Amino acid sequence: MPATAQQLVDEPRRALLFDLSNDERLSSNLHVTDWVFDRITSSSNNLALLKQRPYSVGVAFLPSSLSEDQREQVENLLNTDENLSWVALTNPANLENPEFRQLIYEHFYDYFSLPLNDSAHFRCALGHLHGMSKLRHTEDHLLQPVEEFHMVGSSKQFLGIFDQIRRVATVDAPVLIRGETGVGKEMIARAVHQRSRHRGGPFVAVNCGALPETLIHAELFGYEKGAFTGAYKRKIGRIEAAQNGTIFLDEIGDLPQQLQVYLLRFLEQKTIERLGGNQSLTSNARVIAATHVNLEQAVSDGRFREDLYYRLNVLSIEVPRLAQRDSDIELLARFFLHKFAKEQGSVVRGFTRQAVAAMQSYDWPGNVREMINRIRRALVMSENRMITPRDLGLAEIDARVEIEPLEQVRAHAEEVAVRSCLSQSMNNVSHAAKLLGVSRVTLYRMMDKYGIR
Ligand SMILES: Nc1ncnc2c1ncn2[C@@H]1O[C@H](COP(=O)(O)OP(=O)(O)OP(=O)(O)O)[C@@H](O)[C@H]1O
Q: Residue limits of the Sigma-54 factor interaction domain (predicted)?
């Protein structure tokens, strides 16, 4: 659980001191005003100590040469707690070694050469890290994902979806989920299933657009032995297999017309027939359908049955495009970055401001799925600890453009006008005042205000 700001303020400034130098004198001689160091020597007792006290700053005494084992030990410890930032103390000769340089570059915020002659500088770096950690806690707190049903989102639109999921889960009627590709329709369908009284049964998903008509028929409704050439034995269809559970019909708009009739019968009578069979079977599977096409248009074009449309559209959830869910973009991006970085043991820590700006102004045609792919790729491509727009394959946007308060803009314009009028009139105040349409007294006041002599 993140520490509160008050807790962080009250915390004594304690740093973890990881000493691999084999020379206790070095660390016991480390005296820095306002700081207390808790020394550990091998990573075995580290985890326990880290759990006891959430450190924000770590100092590592690195020996002249690191064995493979020691290097692994250091890397393990450095990766144990992402909220702990490290400063290295090392012999300058070590920096000749490229591997050592890489270790420092990838894992440390800063390094200092031994002997530590300038402890004021060192103290400053520790203070800086401590402050940054406080900021990170605040930011983490602000970016805390609202995670429900394993879904992340905090935009007004997405909170509305959480609400709709809870509502539609309590009834048995069909649900139609609409939204562009990759917005999370299947995820929402699973969430409805998990909250519904059907959660004890299976969740069976079928993509109605992925198979040709004959196959989709057999897939959905099953077939009897001998129903067609190659039907050597009976096959249970997906609707039957979803008994007591949920059948998720993705891309319902692509369902061939003939099958629309059978699906309608199932929705009305809760019965199905296997291909080549003459027996009616009942299934109590709940239907959730999803579409990325405009079904009303498909109905008016005669591609989708109107009666089926009304049957399916009893409850509907509209999922907005990612680009319309402003506050979800950064939240989701950080969520996926941390998730994948952890999985891959990556040293990447976050996004540059430019990367956040680029993501926020990008259109995301492939929505969340596209974001996942871009972040996975960026983790592989990134050469630094922060992901750039380039790593994400996005155009760079100037993140520094800031909106200034109107008063500031006005004052700036006024100053420019006064300066240029004075310069045009060769510093003749009467003439400049005339050009500006103000009295000399007013112009003198303005010159005072802007420090113009
Ligand atoms: N809010 C979210 N939080 C976490 N992960 C999400 C969220 N929304 C979508 N995803 C992830 O994005 C990917 C795409 O989601 P999903 O398959 O549900 O989209 P879809 O709308 O059904 O796509 P399609 O129309 O192409 O079938 C999945 O990996 C899903 O886990």
A: 151-380
Q: Cβ < 6 Å from ligand 1: which residues?
A: 151-153, 179, 181-187, 250, 292, 368-369, 372
205 CA distance to ligand 1 centroid (A)? Answer: 14
Domains along the chain with CATH numbers: 5-132 (3.40.50.2300), 154-318 (3.40.50.300), 324-392 (1.10.8.60), 406-449 (1.10.10)
Which residue's CA lies nearest to atom 30 of ligand 1? 184
For ligand 1, atom 15, the nearest C-alpha belongs to: 184
For residue 322, give both structure tokens. 């990612």
Q: Which two tokens stand for residue 11?
A: 């915390």
The model's pLDDT over 376-409, given as tens digits with 9 standing for 90+, comes to 999 988 888 889 999 999 987 654 455 567 777 7
Across the range 319-348, mean pLDDT stands at: 89
Report phi then psi at 90, rounded to 5: -155, 160
First CA to last CA across the chain, in angstroms? 58
437 Cα to the center of ligand 1, angstroms: 62
Ligand 1 centroid – CA 186 distance (Å): 6
Nearest-CA residue for atom 24 of ligand 1: 181
Q: What is the DSSP letter of 2?
A: P
On whether ipTM exceeds 0.85, the answer is yes
Residue 69 CB coordination number (10 Å): 8
- Measure 182 CA to ligand 1 centroid, in angstroms: 5
236: which residues sit within 8 A by CB, 6+ positions away?
Answer: 222
Q: What is the mean pLDDT of residues 419-431?
A: 79
Q: What is the pLDDT of residue 192?
A: 94
